[in-house]
Design goal:
Layout: E1 4-6, E2 9-11, H1 17-24, H2 30-41, H3 56-65, E3 66-67, E4 72-78, E5 84-89, E6 95-103, E7 106-110, E8 114-116, E9 131-134, H4 137-147, E10 156-160, H5 170-183, E11 191-195, H6 199-207, E12 213-217, H7 223-229, H8 238-247, E13 256-262, H9 270-280, E14 285-291, H10 305-315, E15 321-323
Parallel strand pairs: 2-3, 7-10, 10-11, 11-12, 12-13, 13-14, 14-15
Antiparallel strand pairs: 1-2, 4-5, 5-6, 6-7, 8-9
């Protein structure tokens, strides 16, 4: 049986229609599986007994024998800029973080794909956690369902840029993407995956029929600096990563995103900007610049605004280049800050 079992109960969250159909068994008509599927993902049911589209007897049987599998709220942190950071507890007691950012006309939800992260980027607070385990597809989707219950009808973008390296949990990430698109009705145009550059997995991602958009974290303009900042490049070299990006099968509407975290005096010079231009030349792409979001244990400083703008001005001569506005810095919810820090009440 495909059902994931925790505490002798099948967890529905993370199942596709065929898996639910097998779980319900031959005594239930086939359309019941679709009803359960829609209740879990589209209607975002909080409990099984509340699914009014199902017969009462089936609701009670489902509630008695199966777990919905949604995460529970351990703590919520609210920023002065409206950003929310959710510390969510999973069924085995592990916790992950999810961030909801509200901007005019849209919402952006940043979700995690692993508990912790194995990559070890030296400018990222999440790296200090190390890796505890992968998230299941249901645990990835569950973050989105929990955090967006009150956002019906609002434009939503989902970015897999929270804790973890998504490409090292690719099977669950791709299944979660199918559930978010088919079940929750979110267009793949509005789902983005960010990777440090796991080259074989980039190629595998490109073969998937349903997949998120691809964002690649560069963060340096030379192999030597990138190796110091991102140990992963010792295995997956910058030159080979750019070749994989050139070979990546973009959909007609799609362009690659390159992310570049600016660190004062390390990778933010005009020369770095000119080298970055050469790296991304002739690629259908855009560049997102992120001035370092500081935090405890991070041995780098944020460049002054004028240095960031000068860097952007050089890069934008060759490619669309945007500054990512920091959100939720006061609650450690900004990019690179997720580390399950409990702020004082």
């Amino acid at each position: 049986m495909w059902a994931v079992r925790l505490a002798n109960m099948a967890v529905l969250l993370g199942m596709e229609v065929e898996e639910i159909r097998e779980l319900l068994g031959p005594d239930q008509p086939a359309f019941r599986a679709r009803q359960v599927y829609e209740a879990v993902y589209r209607l975002k049911a909080a409990e099984l007994e509340s699914v009014s589209t199902l017969p009462l007897e089936l609701r009670r049987e489902l509630a008695a024998r199966h777990s919905l599998g949604l995460p529970t709220l351990e703590r919520r942190f609210d920023s002065v800029d409206g950003t929310r950071r959710y510390l969510l507890r999973l069924e085995d007691g592990k916790t992950v973080e999810t961030v909801l950012m509200t901007e005019e006309g849209r919402q952006t939800l940043c979700i995690s794909t692993q508990v912790g992260c194995p990559i070890g980027c030296t400018f990222c607070m999440t790296a200090l956690l190390g890796l505890e385990r992968d998230l299941t597809a249901g645990e990835i989707v569950g973050q989105a369902l929990y955090a967006t219950r009150s956002l019906e009808g609002q434009r939503l973008n989902i970015v897999m840029m929270g804790q973890g390296e998504p490409l090292l949990n690719l099977a669950n990430v791709l299944k979660a993407t199918r559930l978010l698109t088919s079940g929750a009705g979110i267009s793949p145009r509005r789902i983005t995956l960010s990777t440090a550059g796991i080259i074989p997995k980039i190629e595998e991602l490109g073969r998937a029929p349903v997949r998120p958009k691809l964002a690649v974290s560069l963060n340096a303009s030379t192999e030597e600096v990138r190796r110091e900042l991102m140990p992963i490049t010792r295995k997956y070299h910058l030159k080979d990563l750019l070749e994989a990006c050139r070979a990546y099968p973009l959909r007609p509407w799609e362009r690659l995103t390159f992310e570049y975290v600016l660190l004062k005096g390390v990778n933010d010079s005009d020369a770095d900007a000119r080298r970055l231009v050469k790296l991304v030349a002739n690629l259908k792409c855009k560049v997102n610049l992120i001035a370092l979001n500081p935090g405890p244990g991070i041995p780098f400083e944020t460049p002054p605004p004028e240095r960031v703008l000068a860097f952007q001005e050089i890069v934008r001569r060759a490619a669309p280049c945007f500054l990512r506005k920091p959100r939720g810095q006061d609650i450690f919810a900004a990019c690179g800050q997720l580390r399950a820090i409990r702020l004082s009440q």
